[in-house]
Amino acid sequence: xxxxxxxxxxxxxxxxxxxxxxxxxxxxHISTGDVLRAEMKNGTELxxxxxxxxxxxxxxxxxxxxxxxxxxxxxxxxxxxxxxDGFPRTIPQAExxxxxxxxxxxxxxxxxxxxxxxxxxxxxxVNRGKTSxxxxxxxxxxxxxxxxxxxxxAPLIDWYxxxxxxxxxxxxxxxxxxxxxxxxxxxxx
Length: 189
Ligand code: ATP
Ligand code: MG
Fold this sequence. Notes:
Elements: E1 2-7, H1 14-25, E2 28-31, H2 32-41, H3 45-54, H4 62-76, E3 81-85, H5 91-103, E4 110-115, H6 118-132, H7 139-153, H8 155-163, E5 166-170, H9 175-187
Helix pairs in contact: 1-9, 2-3, 4-5, 6-7
The protein binds adenosine-5'-triphosphate (ATP) and magnesium ion.
Adenosine-5'-triphosphate binds at residues 8, 10-12, 14-15, 32-33, 36, 53-54, 58-60, 65, 86-87, 89, 93, 136, 145.
């Protein structure tokens, strides 16, 4: 079974590329952002907690995220493959993912990194904000999210490099081109 981490800054195209991979390979998809937005929409207690962080461009606390991730993962089993989109976002989350999978006799197969320059990210997210209805897709919050990404999430690049799992791909150009690069890596696993 393949456990694939799709990694990149906000707006790098994790969700879009995950959907294409799901179509091609039939993998299950865990988007922690989507899980949290569904909770917010349903007005659950978790959703109300999440909203406070998300609207501020902050991350949800690790312990909470790790529990949500494990429950979501187990609910999707059995699966031929799982794509982790938006998780891990911190080093403790990466360590927790490794432990969680080890307990289930599994491991991360690869970390696919989508590389996109900052100016392009801001432009994409500001554009997405016009139609997404997402309160966090406004310029001020986008800038906060990029800072949080650089401080808390980007250190995972080295972390996965040391694990021997990091594969970086150019995250701009046509969707098909990017997808083809990701598929090449997956097919080589
Ligand atoms: P992309 O555009 O590449 O899909 P995104 O920045 O839009 O990325 P989402 O994954 O949709 O991000 O997440 C939206 C928000 O949900 C984050 O800014 C954060 O507040 C919260 N969140 C999502 N995943 C996590 C996580 N693993 N840990 C903490 N907070 C998270
Ligand atoms: Mg997303």
